[in-house]
Design brief:
The protein is mainly beta. The chain contains one helix and 20 strands. The protein has a seven-stranded antiparallel beta sheet with strand order 1-5-4-7-8-9-10. The longest helix has 11 residues.
Length: about 260
């Protein structure tokens, strides 16, 4: 899953022109508002992007950018939530806490035209302190928590094996084992590398070394996602639309916010 933005992302204001809520209707009104505003038709083909996910008393607040005044939806069918982006394209969708982990797709809609993001959002169940995760095939997961040297280990179908990612200083050197590789962080401090095989992973950088032993959950038939404590961290497993299962592991560290409390 590709390098994703580091923590400290700026929250976008919620869309003033549309209330967050469960999907159902509203697409025709959104299309009419877009036409009245003279929106560029090509803008509707741009998939929405998630900027941050934070806990609120009402649940997880998912904030990001889409086409101006687009109808943005998280999930499909009964387990779906939506809101309208404002004139700048900013949106906020509130997802109430749930008993089980959620795997939610992200898309915008104008009438029958749909633009889907390649990534899925994984939200932990109520009361579990695991951070939300944004995951896309073949890319490093984006963890919605404070930046740290080692942030995620993704179990990928790539022949190179596991994808390891984190945040160091700008252009900092990061050592990764197994593989005995030296990586260079980008201008934002993000780095990504491949760690073949199984077992412990060691990352060296910023004058210290971090060694972890990642583990990955088993996803039962009929479930879309599972998040649970494994070793010194959190294991994630989710099902793709084609039926394949992917997994990731995130070391347990203090998060910026607590998970939403269970509902009544």
């Amino acid at each position: 899953m590709p390098g994703l933005a580091a923590a400290g992302l700026v929250a976008l204001l919620a869309a003033a022109c549309g209330e967050a809520g469960r999907t159902g209707g509203g697409e025709a009104a959104s299309a009419s508002a877009s036409a009245a505003a003279g929106a560029d038709p090509a803008a509707w083909r741009r998939a929405p992007r998630v900027r941050e996910v934070v806990a609120t008393p009402a649940g997880w607040a998912v904030r990001g950018e889409a086409a101006p005044r687009a109808r943005v939806a998280l999930g499909i069918g009964a387990d779906a939530f939506a809101a309208s982006a404002d004139a700048r394209g900013a949106f906020e969708i509130i997802v109430p806490p749930a008993v089980q982990a959620r795997r939610l797709s992200l898309q915008t809609r104008q009438g029958q035209a749909v633009a889907r993001a390649p990534a899925v959002l994984l939200l932990p169940p109520a009361g579990l302190a695991a951070p939300p995760l944004l995951a896309a095939p073949g890319q490093a997961s984006r963890v919605f928590a404070d930046a740290r040297l080692l942030e995620a280990v993704d179990a990928d179908a790539d022949p190179l094996g596991r994808i390891v990612s984190g945040t160091a200083g700008t252009d900092a050197e990061v050592g990764l084992e197994p593989g005995a590789r030296t990586l260079i962080a980008d201008a934002a401090g993000r780095w990504t590398g491949a760690a073949p095989g199984e077992g412990p992973v060691t990352v060296r950088g910023e004058g210290r070394a971090v060694t972890v032993t990642p583990g990955f959950p088993v996803l039962e038939p009929g479930r879309d996602a599972r998040i649970e404590a494994i070793g010194a961290g959190w294991g994630y497993a989710w099902r793709l639309p084609d039926g394949l299962v992917r997994a990731a592991w995130v070391p347990a560290t203090p998060r910026r916010t607590d998970a939403p409390a269970p509902g009544p």
